[in-house]
Amino acid sequence: MTHEVDAADGTVTTSRDGEVLRITLDRPSRRNSLSHSMVDALVDALTAAASDDALRAIHIQGAGGDFCAGADWVATNADGQRPRAGHLVRRIPHAAHRVIDLVHTIALPVVCGVRGWAVGLGCNLALAADFTIAADDALFWEPFADRGFSADSGSTWLLPRLVGLARAKSMLLLGDKVAGSEAADWGLIHDAVPEAELTEAVEGLLARLASAPTVAIGLTKQAIHHGLHASLADSMTQELFNLELSCRTGDFKEGLAAFREKRRPDFRGR
């Protein structure tokens, strides 16, 4: 399956690799900065994936040497005019913000592999993923203040929860860049590896996730995010409802059988 947009504005390509959906941001000449049409295509791809029961993991990557340089504000503002009143309020919730929301809430594990630059919306896309593995010399950058406007695409929610207020402010208010190795040390991302080892590390993680109990993984992801703004009692109630659902899956039965038979489970994602 291939989903493409106007080549002049870059492309977003999706392909099925077994039970893994691979999404590639393909505009290497502009460090994979996202045009309006690319953002719309990314929303479409993630929306379709959310209801595809055959999928068990999603992989997002950038073409060439960079992950994503964020929204293409240069092209968007090429005529030198400020956005008309209300334009951003109307569009962004259904575009950039919708991308982050979909990655955050989809009942599938999302893995980002990051080389080179991850900037603005591109940075927050990587931070919203369940697992991001970066080259140790990759750079994560929130350049909003440097460009004269306030932060968006979930950065003010994601960063304090991932790395605390002090580090969030250094990235968002001072525009400090964070290398992949430092991002992993901070807990900003899952792991950092030498660039030559990035593909192997990402593929190994995707293989683990694609063979996991997909329904239980999705319900656990939902419960983790619910717990970020809930009390302990509310979180345990949510866990109880999710447990009721996961115990009705075929993977639950397979997990019990494998435990009894002292073998590795063969989960099917059902």
Automatic annotation (TrEMBL):
Pfam family, one: ECH_1
The organism's place on the tree of life at top rank: Bacteria
GO molecular function annotations of the record: catalytic activity
InterPro entries (alphabetical): ClpP/crotonase-like_dom_sf, Enoyl-CoA_hydra/iso, Enoyl-CoA_hydra_C
Protein family (similarity comment): Belongs to the enoyl-CoA hydratase/isomerase family.
Listed name of the protein: Enoyl-CoA hydratase
Organism of provenance: Mycobacterium heidelbergense
